[in-house]
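User: Can you help me understand a structure? I only have the sequence.
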Amino acid sequence: HALFCPSGQRMAFLHRWVPRNPMGRRSRLFTCDLEGKDWHLFSTREMVSHLGWRDARQLAAYCRLPDGRDRYVLFADGDPAATRILGERLFSSDGHPSFSPDGRWMLTDTYPDRMRRAWLVLFDTTTGRRYNIAQLRSPRRFASKYPDRHWACDLHPRFDRRGRYLCFDSAHTGRRALCTIDLGEDRLAREPEALSICG
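Assistant: Let's start by predicting it. Here is the structure, written out as tokens:
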């Protein structure tokens, strides 16, 4: 899951390894400069899943904290001890985070629940509010049966470079597709709660 930061000067990636038991996969998060120097290892325990840069010096990841809690954590590159939990009581599952160009909004998703519903979520890092903006069916035929040979159609949401459009992958229509939502000009500042849709 290697990603350049927005300035292009540093990168983040996961070091992942699998013990003899495939269900016991381990991951940890690193950053470094473009020459593979100035390394930072972040304080997590056994699991780091998905990550996204907020700006040139901050990145968020869904990970296990040293105390055993699984949370979205905002890390400061260059200061691995400086952390902030995002949405402490608002997120209870993994997702694929990305950020609006101004860094205020975290866009993420959930994996399908028992009813095969996945959520597209906006989180306001300024107010600490969560907005569920789409509930999408995830037909079972688009996911593998076996955890050690996993494939699926996850939402993987992201902003465009201006912050006007959201795009995500989905199979809610019965076909795999790339979908977009037009936020319009400045809609996040005016009425984010009005974005709620179902599919």
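Now, to help you interpret it: The first strand starts at residue 3 and ends at 4. The radius of gyration is 17 Å. Let me know which part you'd like to focus on.
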